[in-house]
Each structure stands twice: as structure tokens, then as C-alpha cells.
Amino acid sequence: MGIKVGIIGATGYVGEELVRILCRHPRVTGITVAAKDAPGQPMSRVYPHLAGFADMEILDMDRVPELISGSDLVFIALPHGLSVPVAREAMAAGKRVIDMAADFRLPDQALYEQWYQAAHEAPDLLGEAVYGLPELFRSAVRTARLVANPGCYPTSALLALAPLMKHGLVEQDSLIVDSKSGISGAGRTLALGSHYSECNDNVRAYSVATHRHTPEISYYASVLAGSKVEVVFTPHLIPMTRGILSTVYAELLRSMDAAYLRRVYRDFYSGEEFIQLMGEGEWPETKWVQGTNRCCLGLTVVGRKRLIVVSVIDNLVKGAAGQAVQNMNLMFDLPEGAGLNYPGLYP
After folding, report:
1. Which spans in the chain are helix H?
2. Rounded to an integer, what distance in angstroms lies between the CA atom of residue 233 and that of residue 178?
3. CA 312 to CA 188: how far, in whole Å?
4. Can you give the pTM of this predicted structure?
5. Do the Cβ atoms of 242 and 312 come closer than 8 Å?
6. Please, what is the end-to-end C-alpha distance for the chain in angstroms?
7. By Cβ atoms counted within 10 A, which residue in 96, 209, 332, 340 is the most buried?
8. H or E segment to which residue 339 belongs
9. At the topology level of CATH, where does 3-128 sit?
């Protein structure tokens, strides 16, 4: 049986990427899109590279009830703070929901309100939402009505941290995540910081010690560890379009070599089709994953007790739309890689 999907907020970069992936998905038989921008126009007029693949009309936002009614699953690709009423309406209609924003990622209401400086409009749904990082929470995703798709930075960081947390291998107060992202992570909305002349030939740290992905990384690292973990996280904007490279630093609890740790990671991610572990002396690059749903990991040990892990993903695919489709596949009991098994783009 085919799946009919609706995408609300389809004209942003994440929405477009969802359309690009889903229009080739072997089990998706219908895609309906809505957005406040370009209503009444075909999707392929807003994004000409989709011509012949995604020529469906963009519905105005006042037609969202129509979109929900005709969908089996609704992707919400709206800015933070706008997902709650849509999710509630879709769930009331018996539809399954994947939210791409941060509205349901933190199940702790007080933590959410502390970092987002706003009251949560649906605290009753926070406990039901499942954090959609399939490699770590696969069984819960399968049966979920509401999936909170992870942030792009947390995806890269948590996949690097997970084996360490589950096996209790590091000092929990020693975790540092240094991440660098391409400009598409800022979205399509015009902003001074993403203007070409502002970001070209420039690298800058931003939201130092205050970035809203910090509690998300720390919270789920704590879930994996079974005790409270505080991660120091610093994001940087670099002059490229796509990709995230996160370098994770940690102090090991005891001396161990890189070969042993690679075995730990290899065993932890055994059978995971979207995780690729590098060999000795190999360090992943963002171009290796561009356009794919893969995460590549490389690691080494300095002085036998200082660990360095490098994680790379495409922020719009494994960091957003691709991971959402991976979650959809789980929710509908499809092969996890359906619609996602293709090589990347190079150069």
C-alpha cells in the first residue's frame, strides 16, 4: 500500500529536501505541499531543479486542513514555535506526525522554557513525542504518533558520543563538541549573517554557550549514559553551502588505544547502513556525505586518555530531511533505507 504525505513549510530548504527525496521514494504515492510563500504556484517554479519530479501546486496555509485530511503522515517544516497547533490538529485527525523544528525535542518542559524563553503550548504532548534519532531510539520511533526530528548539530554530536555514553568510557564532565556548519543551516529566510559578503572568506563562532542545541545534546547524552551529562558546545558558521563537521573531545576513564575504541564503535553500529566508521588515520570530510543520509566517524586517542572523534553529516539530509524519511520508513514498517540509498554528490 502506498503512503500519502503532506509537507507543511515546503518552500524552505528542509521542505524542499523532503520533496526531493520523497518524489523518488518507492512507496510514496502522493505528496501534498503547503507554505505561506508562493501559494498557487507549482513547487518546481520555486525550485526549478524539481521540474518533472515535483510539479504539484503549493497550497496556501489556510488549506492545511485539506492537506492533513489527504495524508497518512504529515511533515511539519515550519520555524520553531509554530508546530504545536498543526501537530495537534493532525494527530486529532488520526495522522502520524514528524516535526522538523524544536517544539517537541525536549521532553522536560522546564528545560524547554529555560532555553527557548517561551511557555510550551502543548506540555501534554512532550511526554508522547519520540526523539527521532533512529540509530539510538529505533524501537520507540516504530510505534510513535509524534516524532521530534533531531537538530542537525545534535545528530552529528550524539552519533559521535553514543558508544562512549552507553559503555561509560569517558569522564562525563569532560565533553566538548566543536561544530562547523554550512550556511544552509540558517535556512532560506533572508538574514544579514547569511549574506554572501558577510560569510564569504569568514569563519565565526556564534551563540557561544547559549546555542539552543546545547540542552538537546546534553539531555540525550544523559539518557544514553543513564546519569546527568553537561556538554560544552560551540557552533561555527563556515563559508560552504552544506555539511556539518563536529569534533568531539573527551577524557577517557582509563587508558585504551584507538584500535580498541574503533572495535567498540564498530560493534555499537553493527548493521547500521547509514553509519560509516573510518579506519586508522582516516578523517571524514563533509564532501564525502554531501547529499546523503550517511554519518562518517573517525577517531583517535592522544596520550592514551584523550579521545578525539570527528563526525560529518549533510545538515539538510541526515541532519534533517533524510533522517525524517528514515523515521517515516520505520513508522510504516518499510526498509529503513527506502528512498535513501543513493551515492552522494561530488565535487
Report:
1. 13-22, 43-46, 64-69, 83-92, 109-116, 123-126, 134-142, 152-167, 196-199, 213-225, 258-268, 322-331
2. 6
3. 22
4. 0.97
5. no
6. 38
7. 340
8. none
9. Rossmann fold (3.40.50)
Residues 53-101: tens digit of each pLDDT? 999 999 999 999 999 999 999 999 999 999 999 999 999 999 999 999 9
The bridge status of strand 96-99 relative to strand 73-76 is parallel
Q: What mean pLDDT do residues 257-270 have?
A: 98
Q: Which three cell numbers stand for residue 91?
A: 494527530
Instruction: Dig out the grid coordinates for 40 from the structure.
Output: 498557487
Write out pLDDT tens, residues 300-343.
999 989 999 999 999 999 999 999 999 999 999 999 999 999 99
Active site members: 152
Question: How far apart, in whole angstroms, are the C-alpha atoms of residue 104 and residue 160?
Answer: 23
pLDDT at 43 exceeding the cut of 90: yes
Least Cα distance to 285 among 231, 340, 344, 208 occurs for 344
Third-level CATH fold of 152-315: Dihydrodipicolinate Reductase; domain 2 (3.30.360)
Where exactly are the structural domains of the chain? 3-128, 152-315
For the four alpha carbons of 70, 73, 77 and 81, in that order, the dihedral sign comes to positive
Gap between the Cα atoms of 151 and 99, Å rounded? 11
User: Is 120 a residue whose pLDDT tops 90?
Assistant: yes
Residue 259 is predicted with a pLDDT of 97
Nearest to 98 by CA among 1, 25, 7: 7
